[in-house]
Amino acid sequence: MRKGKTLFVLTIIAVSVFALVYFGITLTSNLGKSKTEISAEDADKRLNRIYKDISVTSAEPVKGQIDLDPASALDSLPDISKFPISVESTTSSFAEIFSSTEKSGTGNDGWLNDVAADFNAAGITVDGQPVSVKIRNIASGTAADYIRSGKYVPDAFTPSNELWGEMVKAGGVQTELVSKRLTGNVAGVVMNKQKYDQLVDKYGSINVKTITDAIAANELAMGYTDPFASSTGLNFLVTALNTFDQNDLLGEKAVQGFEKFQANVPFIASTTLQMREAAKSGRLDAFVLEYQTFVNAKDLSSGYVFTPFGVRHDSPLYALGNLPPEKLEIIRKFGEFVQQEKYQKTAADKGFNGLNDYVSELKPVDGALLSSAQKLWKEKKDGSKPIAAVFVADVSGSMAGEPLNRLKESLLKGQKFLGKDNSIGFVSYSSDVTINLPIGTYDTNQQSMFVGAINSLQASGGTATFDGMVVAMKMLQEYQTQNPGLKPVIFVLSDGETNEGHSLDEIRGLIETYKIPVYTIGYNANIKALESISSINEAANINADTEDVVYKIGNLLNVQM
User: Fold this and answer.
1) Percent helix, strand, coil in the chain (nearest 5)?
2) Rounded distance, CA 554 to CA 237, Å?
3) What b/e readout covers 436-471, taking b as 16+ CB neighbours within 10 angstroms?
4) What DSSP letter does each residue of 509-549 carry, written as one string?
């Protein structure tokens, strides 16, 4: 339990990051009502009634010393060993390749691993010496972070699409395009057929232009993935900007078009997995996905239509840095090996090489322009509506010692990513609940008191998770009354083991009615219990550990806040 709670701490930050950064956006009213959702009036009555049952105290605000140095998610990248080797090298002379996860994972996502294993067993030589490859399974956006930061640069990189290659190149890393395509894939919008037919009747056809028009007109509830981390999300962002102004992706016309359509986007997911889970709820009319994932998803085999967009996702292969000739030759030979007919056939069997007739809609986009597009998205994604967030930290007895120290460390590092235009509050809970910091605009004074509250935490007592959430909801309700238009978010750090206070069943209707995303983070935790909380409003659940939680938090907060 102690280790789990410790990492929960890191979790809290990660949660905040994910939630705030990625998608702390509530779903719009046209997404439907669940069976347990109650009326606003009844919700207020129930919230007040439950709140009165909870022992709540307010801590005396204490200021802490803050660090004004700018935050950087890249500074908190975990050790590269966090990301698994999916195929190990078999010779002393080898090339290490970062590979995107849809081709270096397991099952239908493990195609490149199978090819690499065959390559290593084929007895291929360079200058008379046997050679092999090492494949590291790592998401394209995260891989690009390692490479651009210089923290870890492999010999080669095969992201999902060419956009990441351009960003790495713009970051000053020497790159050589060894193969434009290892296997074919495309990104697309998956839309339920009923909505698809409705929009075709009105717009004549479905493409990113008609999709953004429909979203701007509030006719389509669609979600997409975080363009800082997701290949499909980055592709969709630049494709959307291109529909507003093909000549200037960052010009006034493009920015105005983006703001209008983004104002009606109900959901942004940090990962494809979270997007898929949100889609299962039936609350989204459409969402982004790669074609290879689409054809392998049995629940999408009927009733949905796939519309490709943007650049192709053909898994280009880049050699990186000033490599010795033998390393470069290994990478070239691997690029050629992959092209054999039998391997392209096995790729097709796993869902790749579909829609080969689709031609990229976008002209080549400079890497520096892509980075600027990401920054634009971060600035404009929430329009004029800032976020009001309450962090809810578990400080029960099992958090004593190292776990609580980790919690504090995570929060102290993660708080640097909280945007100054947002409002932040802080609650801790054990058997009872303490309001450590009332919600307030995250200016220098609030930041100082947030740090002071973190430093003053002490662990004891039981675990009343849902009591802590009720107090957070009450704080948000009262704050929104005085500050209308804010987007409420709650971040919970816990092991998922609640042993005191109210139950999830008692507050589920409140969470749904108030439409507050509740992001949870846990390590060695009861993940199912945490997922049951986050899934109510399609928020993220993070299973984090001490090595990568700060990076995840930094990433999430960087995007959300």
Assistant:
1) 45, 20, 35
2) 21
3) bbbbbebeeebbbbbbbbbebbebeeebbbbbbbbb
4) HHHHHHT--EEEEESSS-HHHHHHHHGGGT--EEE--TTTH
Q: Is 153 left (phi over 0), alpha (psi -120 to 50) or beta?
A: beta
In angstroms and rounded to an integer, the radius of gyration of the C-alpha atoms of the chain is: 24
- The answer for residues whose C-beta is within 8 angstroms of residue 45's C-beta and 6 or more apart is none
Tell me if residue 259 falls in helix, strand or coil.
helix
Closest by Cα among 524, 527, 550 to 540: 527
CA 411, CA 389: separation in Å to the nearest integer?
14
pLDDT of residue 30: 33
Q: What tokens were used for 127? A: 């200058």
CA distance 386 to 480: 11
- Tokens for 385, please give them: 């509506």
Contact 222/215 with Cβ under 8 angstroms? Answer: yes
Q: Which carries the bigger pLDDT value, residue 6 or residue 159?
A: 159
Predicted confidence (pLDDT) per residue in 115-133, tens digit: 999 999 999 999 999 999 9
DSSP annotation of 386? -
83, β-bridge pairs? none
CA distance 524 to 6: 9
Angle between helices 504-514 and 527-534 (to 10 degrees): 40
Q: What is the dihedral of CA 426, 428, 432, 438, to 10 degrees?
A: -10
For 340, the token pair is: 């054999």
Of 534, 491, 476, residue with least CA distance to 391: 491
| Strand duo 93-99 + 129-137: pairing | parallel
CA–CA separation, 242 and 249 (whole Å): 6
pLDDT for 70: 63
Sheet containing 423-429, strands listed edge to edge, beginning at the edge strand earlier in sequence: 56-58, 433-441, 423-429, 387-394, 487-493, 518-522, 541-543
- Residue 138 CA to residue 157 CA, distance in Å, equals 10
What is the predicted pLDDT for the residue at 22? 30
pLDDT of residue 540: 73
Q: What percent of the chain has pLDDT over 90?
A: 62
DSSP string, 1-65: -HHHHHHHHHHHHHHHIIIIIII--PPPGGG---TT---HHHHHHHHHHHHHTS-EEEPPP----
Q: How far apart are CA 521 and CA 539, in angstroms?
A: 11
Mind spelling out the 3-state secondary structure of 347-360? HHHCCCCCCCCCCC
What pTM does this model have? Answer: 0.82
CA 466, CA 503: separation in Å to the nearest integer?
A: 6
